[in-house]
Amino acid sequence: EMRCPDRPEKSSISMNKVKSWEDLKGILENLPSHSEFVLPSFQVTKTERDNPIVLRSALQLSCISRGACIIMGDQDEGGGGFVIIQGARAKVRVQGITFL
C-alpha cells in the first residue's frame, strides 16, 4: 500500500513569504541538498516568460497544509514548464503542491 511520507519537522518550515513566482523560484533553487522543506501557504502564477524552477539536488518539498500551495499557469498564455529536475543527484519528492 502506497502512502504519503510524514511531513518534515516544523523547524524546516519556511518563514519566507511567497508572493510571486520569482520568490518561490529563489527559495527552492537555493535550498541545500538533502533538505526536507515545508512551504508556507501561497498562490502564484507563472507565465510563459518566467523561467522554470531548476532543481539539481536531493530534496523533499511539501506544503504546510492540504490545498494551500498553488502554482497556476497564466490564464491567457499558459505557464510552460514549471519545474525541471536536472542531474543524477536530483532526487526530488514533492507533496501537497497543486499545479493548475
What is the makeup of the main sheet? 3 strands, parallel
The strand count comes to 8
Percent in strands: 25-35%
- The count of helical stretches stands at 1
Radius of gyration: 13 Å
User: In one word, what is the shape?
Assistant: globular
Helix content: under 10%
What is the straight-line distance between the termini?
A: 27 Å
Structural class, from helix and strand content? mainly beta
Written as H for each helix and E for each strand, in order along the chain, the element string is HEEEEEEEE
**Stretches with pLDDT under 50, minimum 5 residues:** none
Overall average residue pLDDT: 85
Strand order of the largest sheet: 1-4-7
Explain this structure to me?
This protein has a 3-stranded parallel sheet, with no helix packed on it. The radius of gyration is 13 Å and the shape is globular. The chain has one helix spanning 21-29; strands spanning 35-39, 42-46, 53-55, 59-63, 69-73, 83-85, 92-95, 97-99. The termini are far apart. It is mainly beta and 100 residues long.
Spell out the blueprint of helices and strands.
Blueprint: H1 21-29, E1 35-39, E2 42-46, E3 53-55, E4 59-63, E5 69-73, E6 83-85, E7 92-95, E8 97-99
Parallel strand pairs: 1-4, 2-5, 3-6, 4-7, 5-8
Name the descriptors.
100 residues, mainly beta, three-stranded parallel β-sheet, 1 helix, 8 strands, globular
